[in-house]
Amino acid sequence: MPSSKSMSTSLLFRRIFTVGALLGLCAPHVIAAVPDYKDYNVRNFGALGDGKTLDSPAINRAIDAAASAGGGTVWFSSGTYLSVSIHLKSNVGLHLDQGAVILAASPRDGESFRYDLPEPNENDQWQDFGHTHFQNSLIWGENLENISILGPGLINGAGLVRHGSQSRDDATQDALKGKAPAGRARNEEFGYPDAADAVEPGWGNKAISLKLCRNIIIRDISILRGGHFAILATGCDNLTIDNLKIDTNRDGIDIDGCRQVRMSNCTINSPTDDGICLKSSYPLGRPTFCENITITNCQVSGFLDGSFFDGTYRRDGVRNPVGRIKFGTESNGGFKNITISNCVFEYCRGFALETVDGALLEDVAISNITMRDIVNAPIYLRLGARLRGPAETTKVGALRRVKFDNIIAHNVAARQGILIAGLPHENGVTEGVIEDVTLSNIFMDFQGGGTAKQAAREMPELEKDYPDPGRHGDTPSWALYARHAKNLSLHHVEFRAAKPDARPAIVLDDVADASLEHVKLPTEAASAGEGEGAGEGAGAGAGEGASEGGAKENIVLRNGATVRP
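Now predict its structure.
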């Protein structure tokens, strides 16, 4: 028979269980008394979500309420929320539910549809208007922490502009060309600030703009036609961007002078400008670095804007798509400690890594990339001397320790191969030389069909020009042209041409201590347009097939270029 002590213990547990069950029955009432994110539903603050009524005042009231309570999530249920500038606050997130759309209003529709004015910025002579001003945006935040913008809803930038010219009539635009904005002095060497480039007051030109913010999450949203930038983050720290779908008519995601950035699982279609772009410009009045950045599992393309979202993937109307992953051109600070992996390029330009304004570009690893239908150089490395920045502090930068591994590129345009271009220099001087670049486990096939005239072309230096492969013109080789470099290494690389090409496959011009191992090229006859076949050089540039100044050899060495045995 159980003892009285065990019976009392059993009774105690039964009573506790009974009380717990009763509390469970009352739990809905208890939970209802605890604020949750639905307490900041924008509809509770006056938003209608009908696509006609301006809802941004109600949205900003909801954000203010959450911020005043110490933080929370502002919730958008399904509906279309016509908006102008939405002001983010610290410790507040936006959550766009399935079917929720934030629709950018157009100032053409009335005086009430006016975006915040662009804030003054004394550092406006080193970059364009879009990189310089942040508050004339659909969604913006400055000097904030612990913020998020979460999907799966859509941001539709229909009312945003891509260029200043879209915010005024043609006659006014023509009258402003070559002039400085009122009250500002124009830097004539670089052309900024430029009144014609500026967006008129009251107009918006960015979907999401973040300046000097930290601890940011942007996840699961879609952006359609995001203005000049779908996302611009400048001087931000600890930024996560994940699972975004962007179909836009200018820049996709621009990361400018940010640290600790993780970008993953994003698809960006941007036919007229860069898809993913790291920059290091001067709007903060000092050089800032892009550093400690990972980009993985992303896709970039250059189909007609809108055709990615509707699934038609149209190429008509897109003559020279951009849509690439790029560093630069704004490059005052630097780019370092960056990895890019598991990414796909389709119908767009290739990689571009550029430092022309004094930036230090180093310690970059790029791997596991597939590319199809690439319209210019599949890889472009440029160390230049545009030097757009304060003259007393802006000197030639450096480009070194960059590795490309496991890259496949199919149907690369015939005009250019891989293009590596440093700066001319005196013997023994390394300033301006691109150093320690490795290309390994590479397979690329090109359209071919180049001519002897192209093979004989002298490449202009263009050290002060805007850096872009197209500015250099046709390369005198169809697979790789490298100039002013040191310790360039190729191993386990194969290049093919679909049509016979009269140019050599590789030209090394003023390249010191190059290393070519297991480099597989077409035979000289095929390269010269006389037959077909393939051959693999043993050290491929140190022996047969390498010729000082040869016009139709597979590998040509110019201006003292050397290849290690």
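Residues 378-565 form one domain.
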